[in-house]
Write a structure and sequence with these properties.
The structure is a homodimer. Chain A is α+β, with helices and mostly antiparallel strands. In chain A, 28% of the residues lie in helices and 35% in strands. The first copy, chain A, is built from three helices and five strands. In chain A, strands 1-5-4-3-2 form a five-stranded mixed sheet. In chain A, helix 1 packs antiparallel against helix 2 and helix 2 runs antiparallel to helix 3. Chain A is globular, with a radius of gyration of 14 Å.
Amino acid sequence: MSERDAVLFANEAFYRAFADRDARAMDAMWSTNAPVTCIHPGWGPIQDREEIVASWAAILADENAPDIQCRDAEAQIYGDVAVVICFETIDDGRLIATNIFCREGPVWKMIHHQAGPTSAASDPHTAETGGALH
Amino acid sequence: MSERDAVLFANEAFYRAFADRDARAMDAMWSTNAPVTCIHPGWGPIQDREEIVASWAAILADENAPDIQCRDAEAQIYGDVAVVICFETIDDGRLIATNIFCREGPVWKMIHHQAGPTSAASDPHTAETGGALH
């Protein structure tokens, strides 16, 4: 498996944990060695690992939690850090996410997640831009 | 200057370029060695350096471009990559941003920016959370 494939595999595992409502798998996604941050859409930053895991547990336990699919993930690797940009299709809405991973031995662990709304198409090659604050 | 201070200095320079409408300084912020990505609020990802610089030039040339201030920036360093989380106060609105930098010799250059809306207070220690899609 190439490095890039390994990063995209970790990104897929993150969304699989979300889609499966698997709080334990979500917990296991996050680095235990490095500082972590999570910015849910519309929220402020959560900068404590336990609080991040608890926030996901609450979201995944909510019976009204939306379905989610990851689309068009693209990874860039900068040494032991990787950045994945992808779209999140949530019910009828669409978000765009920055997911950052760090290498821990043979696997990549999440150190940061930010998702926010986008009006762009899910295929970045046909994405519309414009009409934003900046 | 500590590593963290150097990262926060680069982050400040990014917002100074924005506030000063200085397209040349904004251009100089972005790495020329590493892959770069920019997600303006509501937009899709821009993954080409020239397009990123052009998007900023258009934004900064717009006489209706909002004023911006960076608040409560916090940096984490992972080897040669640094992640800054901060709030952006734009006119009456508030955004939250992930800014990623990589070390290039003595300076830190931007490799990624995503900003999106937040309902949280600008001080993360008093930030409200909740009411989001996930």
